[in-house]
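Anyone else keep sequences and structure tokens together like this?

Example one:
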Amino acid sequence: MVKEGNKQNRFGLVGRNISYSFSRAYFAQKFKDLELTDHSYENFDLERIEDFQTLLKTRPQLKGLNVTIPYKEAVIRYLDDLDPRAATIGAVNTIKLSDKGLKGYNTDAYGFEKALLPLLTPNHKKALILGTGGASKAIAFVCEDLGIPSKSVSRRPSDIQLSYDQLKQPVLKEYTIIINCTPLGTFPDVRRKPDIPYELITPKHILFDLIYNPDQTAFLKEGNKRGAIISNGRKMLEHQAEKAWEIWHS
């Protein structure tokens, strides 16, 4: 049997504290279904982004990588080229390695759009994006592309962002899509949730959480109790993973 680290076509996930990740199991099953016995997918848990170069030197068989928190923005400086969409968003979650070098892509935007569209009704016209990290940039890009005005919410807001203290009744009435791009509620800290006034959530709202473990976060449970449309990040991840696979084999 060929060991994972010796397989000809190696793929993996770059991030920090990623033992919980969906990607490794997803691609392991995909390789099994496609009978790709020379393919492997591994977690590359990096304490700091500077270790990325060492990873590349010690894994010459790497063909593609996914990137997750907290390196979606920091990894860009190590790449040779950027897909136009990734350049516009300013964050990368997929890397293709070839003879031409390392090229960065953003498939989060594709995955989120595919997951969000079936949930939308004419009532859903404006969005609040909780968090300001790399994932939130892809979400903001999609909202703009769909013609949905959005506002980012931050604990340390800039002039064009909202603070959590500003999320009063007039804001929640106007912004009926709320997307959690923070890690709050991720396993094992499942009781945590963004500090928003859940008592103002109604059946007219969508609560979308990029987190997928647990299936229903504390954020989503609050929305569910009040009749809101809720969705975790599972469908988004599946769509973005398939897009990454397409890129790696293009």
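And example two:
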Amino acid sequence: MSRIAEVDTKFSHYLIEDEIYNGRPARVLYGGDRLVAQSGMPRDDSLEPLFDYNQRFREIVKGVQPKRLLQLGGGAFTLPSVLLKEHKGMQLDVVEVDSELPDIARQYFGLKPCRQLTIYVKDGNQYVAETEHMYDMIIMDVFEDAAIPVTFRTAAFMRNMRMHTAKRGIVAVNVIASLQGLNSNVLRILHARLRAVFPMVEIFPAARDYSLHMSQNYVLVAHDGTWNLAPFMMRQPVPLPKLS
């Protein structure tokens, strides 16, 4: 492991390290005291994202082929960098509240400016409430440490995302939770509030193996019910267990 840099911003203390991550040479952005890996890119020849939930996002984008995509939460912009290489005709808007993260992404993670990419330094909740754009897909990957901020869990926020999702549009949300037990609360809240505004909400495990009671990454995918996403995905959807 090799520490590349430490950066303090208004919102966090970041560590940038080169290491072996899940068996791959990688550069990883950690927040706080190295407790949470916030972004990472492989340092091998594969475009496959380092984190499994980003791979699930990538599979959906490849299958759906959105013309305009919104990502809430940029991190080190590792997923946008992959998507821009693979989808030359797609417009990608990224909203990131920390004004220094785009510079960190450019300096340490290879982010390159291009006409397809527009970066908004703004709170994602405020952006979704105020924007006039319509999106074929919205990706939400917003965390404070390992928790989704409360303002991104509200019914009003879900309605605003729905309002700016185009016909046959899709919303995909990264969440860290369990399927059962106390740690399932955030997953159940997000599922219920998305289900109130979208006809279909599916839960895709990010990892190959999942546990009912262990907190891990899931991708919640909301749409109008006309999409069959299973053929695009390496992981199949799982049901939300009933409360006992």
